[in-house]
Amino acid sequence: MAELLSGYSYDDSLIERGVFEFPDGDVDPDEDLWGADAESFSRNSLVSVIGIEYTSVCQHHLMPFTGVINVAYLPSGGRVIGLSKIARIVWKYSRRLQFQERITKQVASYLGNVVQSPDVGAVSEAVHSCVSCRGVKQMRSSTVTSCLLGEIRSNPVYQRVLFEGISGKKEMSND
To answer: Residue 48 forms beta bridges with which residues?
Structure first.
C-alpha cells in the first residue's frame, strides 16, 4: 500500500485512523459460491442482477466514486451462483484503490470463473468525485464501462438487459 501511495503524503496511520476505509470485502475463493447445477436451466436463460451499488476510491486521484453495476451470465458452464454472492464479488473488487474499468472487468472475469461460463457481462455506471469536484467540475456526468464476453457480447438482447438497467439508475446524480 505504501508503495502505491508513494507520490502522496501517506502513512499507515491514515488507514488505522479510518481516513481510508478498506473494509474486509474479500470473497473466499474456497467458499461454496454456487447453489445448484446448471443442468436444470436452459442455456438461453439469462441470470442477471441489476443495480448492485458500490463505492470505491479512484487509484489515480484518491477520491471516491459511487456506482451501480449490472451483472449477467448464461448458466452454461455447469454451475449457478447464489444471487447475493454476485454482490459479494462486486464488494470484493470495489473495496480497494481502483479504476472503474478494472472493477467492471474483474467482476465479469471472476464470475465467469466461478460459474464456469464464458458467457458473462458487467456494465457499470459511476459518478466520480475527481470529475465533479475538481478540474472540469461536471456535477451530472457519469462514466459507463462494460465487459461483455461470449454470447453476451454477440447477442443484442442480452446487452439490452444490462444497458437498460444502467440507464434507469439516474438517481445516483446529485440533485
So the answer is: 72
Domain housing 126:
39-172
CATH of the domain at 67: 3.30.1130.10
Q: Does the pTM exceed 0.90?
A: no
Closest CA to 65 of 125, 110, 8, 20: 125
Residue closest to 4 by CA, chosen among 55, 44, 62 = 62
Alpha carbons within 13 A on the beta-carbon side of 71? 29
When divided into structural domains, the chain yields a total of 1
The pLDDT tens digits for 34-87 are 555 545 566 668 899 999 999 999 888 888 999 999 999 998 766 788 889 999
Q: Which residues pair with 97 in a beta bridge?
A: 57
CB atoms within 10 A of CB 158: 22
Q: Which of these, 80, 99, 3, 98, lies nearest to 38 by C-alpha position?
A: 80
Contact (Cβ atoms closer than 8 angstroms) between residue 75 and residue 41: yes
Which stretch of DSSP H or E encloses residue 132?
Answer: helix 129-132
Three-state secondary structure of 69-109: EEEEECCCCCEEECHHHHHHHHHHHHCCEECHHHHHHHHHH
Q: Is residue 20 part of a domain?
A: no
- Alpha-carbon gap, residue 88 to 26, rounded angstroms: 8
